[in-house]
Amino acid sequence: ELFAAVETLARAKPLRGERLAIVSNGRGMGVMAVDSLVLNGGRLASFGEPTVAALDKLLPAGRAGRNPVDFDEEAPPERYGAVIRTLFEDPGVDAVMVLHAPVAGVSSSKAAEAVIQANKEKKGCVLTSWMGGSRVADARHLFGNARIPTFDTPNQAVDSYLHMVRYRRNQEMLIETPTSTPEEFTPDTDAAR
After folding, report:
1. Beta bridge partners of residue 69, listed in sequence order
2. Which among 87, 139, 168, 177 counts the fewest CB atoms within 10 Å?
């Protein structure tokens, strides 16, 4: 866990907040990630109306406006990039986690390239979980070269995201300025004179 935390903190872009959007090409993966996030004290992002309207054009009917964002299993690779760009336009989204399980007819590597390109354009914090062992090895290699953290399972990705949240909170606490005088202290000016 220590090595996973160090790798994530070294590769991922700093968080600007703690609200996570989850994107998946399968409903079960997204639900697993949400459960893990919520049970461990994380926060899901809520989408604004412009984001919901934009997602409505990109996703199958009835799937927009909800977190996790779930598009169909056979979504083209370009949709990954389009959804990420849309989510990073929303001020209520601080990071995006993209989950992918390989399916016939959709290139896992092309989907990874779309995620990498969208991340370059929007400069946000992206974490990924490309599941499937050797079938997604090339895609995971692309993420490594792009310095985007990628994990074997959604739970590992959520754990790493929570490491980032705790690190961010600790950094904020370290720069807090203590009060200049204790609150219960009243100087004895007569004795001082």
Report:
1. 23
2. 177
Tokens 């050797």 map to which residue? 134
Q: Model-level pTM?
A: 0.84
Instruction: Provide DSSP, 172-189.
Output: HHHTPPPPSS-TT----H
Rounded alpha-carbon distances, angstroms, from residue 104 to 57, 65, 76:
24, 27, 11
What does the alpha-carbon distance between residue 98 and residue 52 come to, in Å, rounded to a whole number? 18
Q: What is the CA radius of gyration of the chain?
A: 20
- Residue 39 has phi, psi (to 5 degrees) of -65, -20
Q: Report how far residue 31's alpha carbon sits from residue 22's, in angstroms, rounded to the nearest whole number.
A: 9
Assess whether the previous peptide bond of 154 is cis (omega < 30° from 0).
no
Residues in the chain: 193
Q: Which residues of 16-30 are buried (b: 16+ CB within 10 A; e: fewer)?
A: eebbbbbbbbbeebb
Distance (Å, rounded) from C-alpha 92 to C-alpha 110?
Answer: 28
Distance (Å, whole) CA 62 – CA 137: 33
pLDDT of 97-132, one tens digit each? 999 998 888 888 999 999 999 998 887 889 999 998
End-to-end CA distance of the chain: 59
**pLDDT band (50, 70, 90) for residue 85:** very high
